[in-house]
Amino acid sequence: MKRFVLVTATVLLTAACGSKHKGTYETEAAANATEAAPADPTVDLTKAEDLWALRADATKLQEALDLYAGVVANDASNTDALLRLTRGYYFLGDAHKAEMDDKLVAWDKAISFGKQCMGQNATFASLIEKGEGEDEAARALEVSDVPCTYWTAAALGKWAKAQGLGTTLKNIPIAKAWMTRINELDGTYFYGGADRYWGAYYAAIPSFAGQDLALSKEYFDKAIAAHPNHFGNRVLLADYWATRTQDVATFDTQLKHVLSQPVDVIPDLIPEQEAEVRKARELMAKRDELFLQ
């Protein structure tokens, strides 16, 4: 049977109690990411990149992240390493960790490193320091900030959603502002990442907060049309939109497509594609629970 969520007055009253993520945009914080600085950051960055290519293995990914953190400990302004840390800890939580507590730890680290990465934009960091909201300061983000902003927003969305409706609603204005700015600067980043985000967003939020399933489908369709080989676009459509609309045909079509394709259809994204295949299999295994029969 499909699981129904009853939004009660109690939930609405507690919605305002969720906390925002407390990561800092101060670049100095990155220097304290590890206990010791690397002896040779150039060599360590090369080693980290070699291990990054093996990120389908959780142990190799963690080794890479430890090296990237060492690079940042030596050079707090190394945006390349900060970006890898943000994306890497997001992926660690999303693809490799099974327990929610472990996922939250990984996503928390992704957000913290991501905010330090975004803080490399001096204008953005200055606005935050002067007291502007994280959402309002988004106007200062530039094209070069899109990668760090995207992965920070993605991790923030996962982190907040996992902690319940209150925390989700507390962080929605920030994530929305960041993704809106990404749309303005480079909406094509990471295989339609912004459209993929909005598709999930408009399906996942409760009706009183602006759920719009028609708009959700438009965004998913746009992402798939632009990047039909990106499995995440299809898995999210099945998971978020098809289950809420009880469209079992779309659910089956999208997941069967993912399960029938080679994971190397996007050569640079094999570990991520493999993770989406695992998600597709898990969703298919829960098919009878998700749809009314």
Walkthrough of the structure:
This protein has helices at 9-14, 41-52, 58-74, 79-96, 100-118, 122-129, 146-162, 165-186, 189-204, 213-226, 231-245, 248-260, 270-285, 287-290. With 293 residues, the chain is mainly α. The termini are close together. Residues 1-18 have low confidence and may be disordered.
Would you summarize the structure shown here?
It is built from 14 helices and no strands. By secondary structure, it is an all-alpha fold. It has two domains: 22-156, no CATH class; 187-293, TRAP transporter T-component (Serine Threonine Protein Phosphatase 5, Tetratricopeptide repeat), CATH 1.25.40.
Class computed from helices, strands and strand pairing: mainly alpha
Number of helix segments?
14
The average pLDDT is 90
Query: How many domains?
Result: 2
Q: Kindly report how far apart the N and C termini lie.
A: 7 Å
For the sheet with most strands, the description reads: none
Shape: globular
- Strand element count: 0
